[in-house]
């Protein structure tokens, strides 16, 4: 009896002890779970546990799962079988900034738990090489307080894998959890006690404290200019695209290290080495937003693409081809048929009134109206005198009117408009552009005008080959982004200071531009936020307007009628018209004499 009673008491004590242990475990993780739940940025949790920490993992899960969507993964199985189904989960292959990785470890377990953690981190990076790293929390249960020295190497190693928000939480019975984190920009470690309002992941991207970001130094006007010192070293960049980086640099307080060796102006030829350096972490980000529609697909596995924010419109740059035409008033055009009608009327009057035919021939009436003297005796009949006098007066009036109308004739100078794709397609000028632009511009479009344009479009290695040929000889057209075309139209002038190119009105297609970063860059999201603020403020639009305003003004001035030396032009027109009329009169007089001689 006593033996049964003792056994029952021992069973009750063991059960109460297990309950107290479970209660203790729940209390240990309660504050940590509450902080995870209260973090509004966390939408889902991936919990990595091991067999040695199974009891703590269950306690952690029981508190966390009812409040936050949680996926639990057996860490030991994942490390043994690299191809298990856990690694194919979308949340591991495409984590977001709202994803939280929680690693539960037991410091008192046998084996090197730090190496296991490093191996697990490498596995998660291998599974998702491009996406930004999620927040990562190491929860370590230890019977004794663990010092920072035990975790400093792991914190530094996590940063080498691009884990910026990486925190170690040491959970010890009877004590508040201790948090360790590392700021790579100040190179300082920090130790904190977990409090109700303590941030598990302190924000570190508000100030980079002079951290050096590596960007490529490329010369591509008007987007990028390289500034060099007296020794030829690159000291800074400038240009329309680099203004974004200047705002980034001033807002986040970082410095830039310029990677040289890619200063060539052929931007498309530099994309493979640039993206290769991005993939090898030799460059942190591009120094300019690039057009993604035609290029990014070839290098999508080597970079992290930022927010699409800049619309790029591809257009034709065409030479200004001068044309001259004579502006003849409508009165001058009407003067010729009226003149012929007058000759017919007087010829009919001669036949009706029976005037001497030899003095009233068509050619002689024509000569009198032109003001040419015709030798003839004075008319004898009164009616003939009146008709002849009216013909002389009409001749004087028409001579004066003809001179006045000739003075109104203006020589106008203008340029070929190139207002439509049809007009460009019918032009005899060939079109040159980069190879990838040809493919994106025409593609599989079967429209007749597009096919005509495609047949006369040829690739060039450098777009400036086309621009120089167009400026010097006016013998071709080019396809470029609109901002580059406006820059060319403004800057490329001839030796007389006259603009020789312009942007044609019809546009071809639109492309979107974005910044590119190295894979899993921790800076991409922060820079995207700044880009969004720049776009919303309209500052970037003012850069384009300031660059194009002068171009639009000069283009408007070219559309006005040219009035310089207008008096000299009118004098030339009068002299030319007088010379032509004199020649016609002489030819008419000679023809009349010959006709009269043949009649005799």
UniProtKB/TrEMBL annotation:
SUPFAM superfamilies: Periplasmic binding protein-like II (SSF53850)
Alphabetically ordered keywords of this record: Membrane, Signal, Transmembrane, Transmembrane helix
Source organism of this protein record: Nasonia vitripennis
Residues that span the membrane, as ranges: 566-588
Name used for this protein in its record: Uncharacterized protein
Signal peptide: 1-23
